Amino acid sequence: MSDHSTSNHSSPLTTYFAVWAALLVGTFLTYEAAKIDLGVFNAAVALTIATTKALLVALFFMHLKGASEKLLKLVVISTIFFLLILLALSMADYGTRLT
Amino acid sequence: MSDSQATAVHRGHNPALLHHFATEEQQRDASSLGMWIFLATEVMFFGGLFCAYLIYRGWYFGDFGAASKSIDALLGGTNTAVLICSSLTVVLAIWAAQTARRGLMIAMLILTMLFGLAFLGIKGIEYKQKFDEHHVPGPSFSFEHEPIPGHPGQYANPQHAEIFFALYFIMTGLHALHMVIGLGIFSWLLWMAWKGRFTPEYHTPLEIGGLYWHFVDIVWIYLFPLLYLIDRHP
Question: For chain B, what is the domain count?
């Protein structure tokens, strides 16, 4: 939010309400999509919507979009990286066991 | 330190600027970086539970589907909407602080806490249903003759369903604990806002508290589909 000192104060509000509406629509979509039988794609659809919602919150509500600090970006990216290591390597083991 | 000394010490800058920082911007960046590092530890903390959930879900998918179906998804969905609304009021409170609207800031902080309490109330209703149905892991646990979704004539293994409910109570319980801590933080923020501590130049505690609140919201955004909506289709 490096530009919040500039004259236009209504623009962040528009963004906040748009993100809020998108998050509510996403919640409704997840709820409705779960009722349709998509086979293995049910989980994929649910996780895609959840990740989109999480990104919206992180980018616009937590102000990651427009963050200028390189250290901050490093922390966020390494967080996601280490979480993916935890999940991916564990699933690579348990997901490929034959018994 | 007397008042005159304090005035002399802070001469020429905002009294909120600590002396080991060069500028207010540097101080704000340091606070924000510290909070994001804390959130990184929180991600790994919850990540372990999500990992355990994924492994057991892969092994016992049918049992997890049957157990998930016994939870009231409408309550979970309502709670998701409640948390999303509370996240909006948090950013509005920060915007109010940035634009020197003290009344709006206080109103938004109170609204945030009311949404938080509503979330915990709905969670309480949901937990009570689970206790009434004997779906709480332990000696009185019972999950007999519950059909596996999509497999007519097959019933869920109660021991596997018990693992689902253990994960359900640990993950939602830990999330609820974060909500309670969040309410504590926001009570303090409300007190500071009431005393007029937050100005357009200095409102870092609001931003840091907001980061925490949004993080707890993100955890719920994943918990909702994973716990409530595993295999809902008829």
Answer: 1
CATH number for B29: 1.20.120.80
Judge whether B193 and B173 are in contact, CB under 8 Å. Answer: no
> Is B8 among the domain residues?
no
Angstrom CA distances, B204 to A63, B51, B146, B201, stand at 13, 34, 51, 9
What's the burial of B196, exposed, middle or buried (CB within 10 Å: 0-12/13-18/19+)?
Answer: exposed
| pTM confidence score | 0.91
Per-residue pLDDT for chain B (234 aa), expressed as one digit of tens each? 455 555 556 666 777 788 888 888 888 889 999 999 999 999 999 999 999 999 999 999 999 999 999 999 999 999 999 999 999 999 999 999 999 999 999 999 999 999 999 999 999 999 999 999 999 999 999 999 999 988 888 999 999 999 999 999 999 999 999 999 999 999 999 999 999 999 999 999 999 999 999 999 999 999 999 999 998 887
Q: Does A86 touch chain B (CB under 8 A)?
A: yes
For residue B233, tell me if it sits in a domain.
no
Q: Which 9-38 residues of chain A touch chain B by CB within 8 A?
A: 9, 12-13, 16-17, 19-20, 23-24, 27-28, 30-31, 34-37
SS (H, E, C) B61-107: HHHHHHHHHCCCHHHHHHHHHHHHHHHHHHHHHHHHHHCCCHHHHHH
Backbone angles phi and psi of B155, in degrees to 5: -115, 150
Domain assignment of residue B154, given as a range? 23-228
Is position B11 within any domain? no
How many residue pairs from chains A and B have C-beta atoms closer than 8 A? 118
User: Could you give the C-alpha distances from B229 to A17, A34, B18, B70, B93, in angstroms and in order?
Assistant: 27, 6, 48, 10, 32
Side-chain-side CA neighbours of B80 within 13 Å: the count stands at 32
Contact, B207 vs B174, CB < 8 A? no
Chain A residues touching residue B38 (CB < 8 angstroms): none
